[in-house]
Design a protein that fits this description.
Strand content: 15-25%
Helix content: 25-40%
Radius of gyration: 25 Å
Number of helices: 14
Largest sheet: 7 strands, parallel
């Protein structure tokens, strides 16, 4: 059934990381707030933040980059925590990273609070020049996260579901992370384009980064023209609440109809996007590999998980690419359409047989 559904898909929603890209993230560069070399306290803060909460791709890339002895000078690494030293963060107050919040935070022993996350969120209202520089860097197709600090009193209420950012945040640095585009992504997307399937790339990264990666992978607008990228924070209110009404889904479908790229999307918004497209009569397939994709995969007509994805994602998907190769999908589509074509031929044969048998029976009865 999953193969046959894929053969009827007309809209393919793609998660960027792990689908268009290989999912391997590397630390590219760490800049100070002025664009120069990052000071030692910034490296120390990043090392501490990389030990907060559960492991994720960004934290792993930062830890690996900091542990590379050839990356930073001995003076720059002096006082930096050993990457992977989880005990170093055991006695400090912290907020783990969340795909919904888009940031993580930790308060060090000196009382300074460090926040790592999306530049548009943690630098909003502060340091406009640093935010502009982060956006310009993101247009190169790299992932950019910002580091900010606050010396004002801040305390996390234990068990608080929606912690707020500290006050008076000031930019402390910019972290640039690189991703590798799958070599087969362009060819696979070109196949779907020839088959009349509209591809939409949705991701939690910035719209500038996602759009640049999508262009490199060969994603084009549905009807030609310039690729349209949207920031999910500008989508209609109610989208992503989990209790969207028909009117909410209608407004969301109108907003994303001409867009091929959506950035800063929360897991709940991914699910709402799938539901909005389905409400327009589209047959929607959703690909992904992370836990934040599970909600959308479950509600799509066909959820496709990568073999190296999270167990929860593979559990709700109807199709799992065991080798994690995006290029396997065209073969699956071809197989599904072959099955459907054979079924139609058999149906036509039996329909013709039934009609002729009925006509013969009528003629024999009339002449008897």
């Amino acid at each position: 059934p999953a193969v046959e559904v894929l053969a009827r898909v007309d809209t393919l929603c793609l998660d960027k990381t792990g689908t268009i890209t290989t999912g391997r993230i590397r630390l590219g560069e760490i800049q100070g707030p002025d664009g120069g070399e990052a000071p030692p306290e910034v490296l120390s803060a990043l090392a501490l933040l990389s030990t907060v909460g559960e492991a994720n791709a960004t934290a792993d890339a930062i830890r690996e980059g900091l542990s590379d002895p050839g990356r930073f000078s001995e003076q720059g690494l002096r006082g930096v925590l050993e990457p992977g030293d989880a005990g170093a963060s055991a006695d400090v107050e912290s907020v783990p990273f969340s795909s919904r919040r888009k940031w993580s935070a930790v308060r060090d022993r000196s009382g300074t609070t460090w926040v790592l996350g999306a530049p548009e969120i943690i630098l909003a209202g502060y340091n406009a020049s640093v935010l502009d520089r982060a956006r310009q860097i993101a247009t190169r197709g790299v992932r950019v996260v910002a580091l900010a600090r606050s010396r004002s009193p801040w305390r996390l209420v234990q068990g608080e579901e929606d912690p707020r950012l500290p006050d008076d945040l000031e930019a402390a640095g910019i972290v640039i992370l690189t991703e590798e585009i799958r070599p087969d992504a362009a060819e696979t997307l070109a196949y779907f384009r020839r088959q009349g399937v509209d591809a939409k790339v949705i991701s939690g990264d910035s719209p500038e980064t996602v759009a640049a990666v999508a262009r490199q992978a060969g994603v084009t607008a549905a009807h030609g023209g310039e690729l349209v990228a949207l920031d999910a924070r500008t989508l209609p209110a109610g989208a992503g609440s989990g209790q969207e009404t028909e009117e909410d889904l209608e407004r969301l479908a109108d907003a994303v109809e001409g867009a091929s790229v959506l950035g800063r999307v929360t897991p709940e918004q991914k699910r709402a996007l799938v539901r909005a497209l389905k409400s327009r009569g589209h047959v929607v397939a959703m690909t992904g590999d992370g836990v934040n994709d599970a909600l959308a995969l479950k509600d799509a007509d066909l959820g496709i998980a990568m073999g190296n994805g999270a167990p929860a994602t593979k559990a709700v998907a109807r199709l799992v690419l065991l080798k994690g190769e995006f290029s396997a999908l065209p073969g699956v589509v071809a197989q599904g359409r072959r099955v459907m074509a054979n079924t139609e031929r058999i149906a036509s044969l039996f329909l013709a047989k039934t009609i002729y048998a009925s006509l013969i029976a009528v003629v024999v009865a009339a002449t008897a």
